[in-house]
Design brief:
Blueprint (H helix, E strand, L loop, with lengths): L15 E3 L1 H7 L3 E6 L11 H14 L4 E7 L3 H13 L2 E7 L8 H8 L3 E5 L4 H14 L4 E3 L7 H15 L7 E6 L3 H13 L4 E6 L4 H18 L12 E3 L12 H14 L8 H13 L8 E6 L9 H8 L2
Length: 323
């Protein structure tokens, strides 16, 4: 694969750890976890890998400000704000939702990292992002726009390198399972799998969209990413494995399935997964194991994409405090 310019923001390689107690409790396959919650920057997460390539491009363009968008408890926004602080850049975050009386979780960290917060609605977020960029330029700033979730070909390329990292850590797993939303993580993994000859299955658990929509987005992004990496390949939606059976009550709505998954990972492995992304993907993994989707001999890697700060958001505390 072509080597793209990258900054050193993440602590790599992240650990690959066995989860024997959770495997035994579920009576399922050999479970492992790829600890991208341990990338280090601003309490870690998968977006830090993407920010290594995206911020390299920002600095090359002479940017003095990073601007991006997300929800109130966006892990992507929190890590972008941390990257900006590390690099001495300003940061503007366009967040969809109502500003709380007291910031908590990721929002508290956004403020600690010094980010400017622009509030808007989900429907108006794209327009608000464009308006914020125009305002910064009019003020003489040189902002660099980072797409939602860092999911551009440049951001996704970081996860092509991440698959290469995983394969260097031991026997190739039969399955890789993770939360998929904006599609960049999955696109990078899928692109690299073809380029590197990895034959295991890469299963994205949709946290917020129907399968067909996510498959189409990931296929297009994987095609663009492979071109960027210098080894063009064509991906079709049917090439992308997505399970959208676990959307629950909707995006960022924690139900009992997510709460159970959070408790099981915490009490059997001392691992923290979040209510929005990794908790939903973990709930899907647990249910698929109980349904016999994997054989006992298969090696399954749960790719932990981070998000633990959301556990401390006030809106989720009641659901997690009950048994």
């Amino acid at each position: 694969m072509k080597s793209l310019p990258r900054l050193s923001l993440a602590q790599l390689p992240t650990p690959l750890e066995a989860m024997p107690r959770l495997s035994a409790a579920l009576g399922g396959p050999q479970l492992w976890v790829k600890r991208d919650d341990q990338t280090g920057l601003g309490l870690g997460g998968n977006k830090t890998r993407k920010l290594e390539t995206l911020c390299a491009a920002a600095l090359a363009a002479g940017a003095d400000t990073l601007i991006t968008a997300g929800a109130i408890q966006s892990n992507h926004c929190r890590q972008t704000a941390a990257a900006a602080a590390r690099l001495g850049l300003a940061c503007t975050l366009v967040l969809a939702g109502e500003p709380p009386a007291l910031p908590s979780g990721n929002l508290l960290l956004d403020r600690l990292f010094g980010a400017e917060i622009v509030w808007t609605s989900f429907a108006e977020r794209p327009a608000a992002l464009q308006a914020s960029e125009a305002r910064l330029r009019a003020a003489g700033k040189n902002p660099y726009l980072i797409p939602y979730g860092g999911s551009s070909p440049l951001g996704a390329a970081a996860y092509a390198y991440a698959l290469e990292e995983l394969l260097a850590q031991g026997s190739p797993p039969d399955w890789i399972v993770f939360a998929s939303s904006s599609g960049g993580t999955q696109a990078g993994l899928v692109a690299a799998a073809r380029l590197l000859g990895y034959s295991g299955r890469i299963l994205g658990i949709s946290v917020d969209e129907p399968a067909a929509e996510l498959q189409a987005r990931v296929a297009e992004l994987a095609t663009q990413t492979s071109q960027l990496l210098g080894q063009p390949a064509d991906f079709q939606p049917q090439d992308i494995l997505v399970n959208a059976d676990y959307l629950g009550q909707g995006y960022a709505q924690m139900g009992e399935a997510e709460a159970e998954a959070i408790r099981l990972f915490a009490r059997h492995e001392g691992l923290l997964v979040d209510p929005v992304y990794t908790g939903r993907a973990a709930a899907a993994l647990i249910d698929l194991i109980r349904r016999g989707h994997f054989t006992p001999e298969e090696r399954v890697v749960f790719w932990h994409t981070g998000g633990a700060p959301a556990l401390f958001a006030e809106r989720y505390q009641a659901g997690l405090s009950t048994e």
